[in-house]
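The following record pairs a protein chain with its ligand, adenosine-5'-diphosphate.
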Amino acid sequence: MLVVVALGGNAILQRGEPLECSVQRENIRTAARSIAKLAENHQVVLTHGNGPQVGLLALMNEAYSDVAPYPLDALGAQTQGMIGFMFEQELRNFMPDRKVCTVSTQTLVDPQDPAFSDPDKFVGPVYSKQQAEELLKKNPGWAIKADGKYFRRVVPSPMPSEILELPSLRHLLSSGDITVICGGGGGIPVKRINGKLEGVEAVIDKDRASRVLARDIGADALLILTDVAAVATQYGDPASQDIRLATPDKMDSFGFSAGSMGPKVEAANGFVRDGGKLSGIGSLEQAAEIIEGLAGTTIKAEVENEIQYYSSIEQAAGF
Ligand code: ADP
Ligand code: MG
């Protein structure tokens, strides 16, 4: 199968972990091991998030405040280079006989998107309330929101409409044997003004961009890998159940958090509604198991009884 695998930026640098190169490298190695196993039997297109990394670069900007800061599109491009390079290297180490290629990717957005006046995409490290208040004083243009028990900077996250490199990506994929890394951080956000491309101050949600990519390259499956084993019906509640298999309509009947699980379920549902065979959401260590329906949450158009859950024993064991 042709599989788009979308990896979480927060899974690459987990909340509360130091935003350090060695930590990121170790998490990328773990993910690459899992993706190399998947790539034994499937053609993989890998996309990844960049929330923690792009926010860190924005903070590094502050250290050289004599000049205008680099805008978010330029920072997004930097994260594609850095994360793409690390993934490519780790994937090559796990599968030295295979071809791996990273493609810098631009994603078109509508400059009138309402997201520009309502920033909601978390970027950078987490802060205490007091740190957040100090940062807001120093950077009056920033917006900060609560992310669970922490606080984080938020930036506009417009809807992706088109991936500009699509024809070139199709060309690469027609070879059938190249593992392609692209669409990092949802793609570098750009707009077209009077026919000319310009960067945009935003960070696109990588789950939404991966849905557009998966649809437009005609992928069979979309896997969204993160730091939880499956989608929980009521995350954090003792009565919650882990979903094994469900239809998009059934998934829609639960309310999932806007800043985290919500966009994943929205993308996974959308891909199946657009005609994709299946979507999977689960742990970045279980890519090969999720595609077989042996782990994670699978979303398909046709499911017996509309939904099936993992048993409480499987849940307790983290299956
Ligand atoms: P990523 O960087 O992988 O996109 P996110 O933090 O955006 O990571 O999303 C994954 C997080 O979503 C999990 O770590 C978990 O805390 C949270 N989450 C919220 N709702 C749910 C749910 N219903 N089931 C599982 N995880 C959930
Ligand atoms: Mg996310």
